[in-house]
Design goal:
Blueprint (H helix, E strand, L loop, with lengths): L4 E6 L3 E6 L4 E6 L2 E4 L3 E5 H5 L9 E4 L2 E2 L2 E2 L2 H15 L8 E6 L5 H12 L7 E6 H8 L10 E6 L4 E7 L2 E8 L3 H16 L1 E2 L2 H11 L10 E8 L5 E7 H25 L2 H10 L1 E4 L8 H9 L3 E3 L6 H11 L16
Parallel strand pairs: 1-9, 9-10, 11-17, 17-18
Antiparallel strand pairs: 1-2, 2-3, 4-5, 4-6, 7-8, 11-12, 12-13, 14-15, 15-16
Helix pairs in contact: 4-10, 5-6, 5-7, 7-9
Length: about 350
């Protein structure tokens, strides 16, 4: 295996790149800021810091929407810039393994493939790997065994619920809502009930600081600044964990209901494995406090949380490209019929 190989997870919110030569994960916001129509102004974390703050002549956008590439050229620009900024390893002629969501079309998968194959990097090879399979490997599991593994990945724009066995997806459900929808629910709840208008960044901050899937016995709170919907003036308001719980509970319940539907479709022998080993949860929003307890109560199956849930996929890709027994889990697009 060549030293210069990379695992790429093009997340909606965060772009993760594992460099085998550097042995590190690059994790930056998947955001780009363009001034005028064509001039690159900022990318990554720096561009995200401008989101909801930039003047009209600077367009801050996210190249990936609902798990698929929505802006091909800008996505390629962000990748090239991050590789040049963070890695000392040789990128030209390198090997790339790219995670792709489940339940997307072959055309959408091909855009992931072409992103690297047709780039100036002139890669030695480009292989694709289904995200849930990379997730399982990143969790330290062996998806090639004849054992059922259920992985629930709550990402920014999507939630993927998958049952894996023998290196393939037995059942997979891609839901078009995730952490961003939860953030929107927080903002809408405060606007509807307290006449307080806040931005997406503030609602995300509230989710990360106060959100809990089960109502807390000991209340937490924080003070934020928003805009009064009635008079349009900025105001400070204390937000409590109970308010955030009320805002997000329906979203979390929707995920539980979707998991139940997938479990109903799961063959009995695989369902037995899932009951024995539990459900594995990854993705940024799996860090919501007590979400494992709520999901266990809702399904009667224990829930296993990942240590670094946002990096499970990219670390799984590293293992797939490094260890021969997992190499068959990734494939080259041109070898697939589409």
């Amino acid at each position: 295996m060549a030293a210069n190989s990379f695992g790429i997870d093009l997340g909606t919110c965060n772009l993760k790149i594992y460099s085998k030569a550097d042995k590190k994960v690059i994790n930056e916001k998947n955001t780009i800021a363009i001034i005028g129509k064509t001039s690159l102004y900022a990318y990554g974390d720096e561009a995200y810091a401008m989101y909801e703050k930039a003047p009209e002549n600077i367009n801050v956008s996210f190249p990936v929407i609902n798990g698929v590439i929505a802006d091909y050229n800008n996505m390629q620009t962000v990748i090239m810039q991050l590789l040049a900024k963070h890695t000392k390893a040789k990128t030209k002629g390198a090997e790339f393994t790219v995670a792709v969501p489940t339940d997307i079309t072959e055309v959408e998968k091909k855009s992931f493939y072409d992103m690297f194959y047709k780039s100036k990097l002139k890669p030695k090879s480009v292989r694709l790997c289904e995200k849930p399979i990379a997730d399982a490997v990143g969790l330290g599991l062996d998806p090639t065994e004849p054992t059922g593994i259920m992985v629930v990945d709550i990402g920014a724009d999507t939630t993927e619920i998958s049952v894996i066995s023998l290196g393939g997806l037995v059942i997979s459900e891609l839901l078009h809502f995730g952490g961003n929808r939860i953030d929107e629910s927080v903002a809408n709840y405060l606007k509807r009930n307290y006449n307080l208008y806040i931005g997406q960044k503030t609602s995300k901050q509230l989710k990360e600081e106060l959100a809990s899937a089960i109502k807390l016995d000991e209340e937490k709170s924080t003070v934020i600044v928003g805009r009064d919907v009635v008079n349009g003036l900025p105001i400070e308001m204390e937000i409590t964990s109970t308010m955030i719980y009320d805002a997000i509970k329906d979203n979390v319940e929707s995920i539980i209901n979707s998991i139940k539907i997938v479990l109903e479709k799961t063959p009995p022998e695989l369902a037995r494995d899932v009951i024995r080993t539990g459900i594995y949860m990854t993705g940024g929003s799996s860090k919501i406090a007590d979400i494992d307890k709520l999901f266990t109560d809702g399904t009667n199956i224990k829930v296993n949380l990942a240590e670094n849930p946002e990096e499970c996929v990219v670390r799984g890709l590293d293992t797939i490209v490094s260890e021969p027994q997992f190499s068959k889990l990734a494939y080259e697009m041109k070898a697939k019929a589409y």
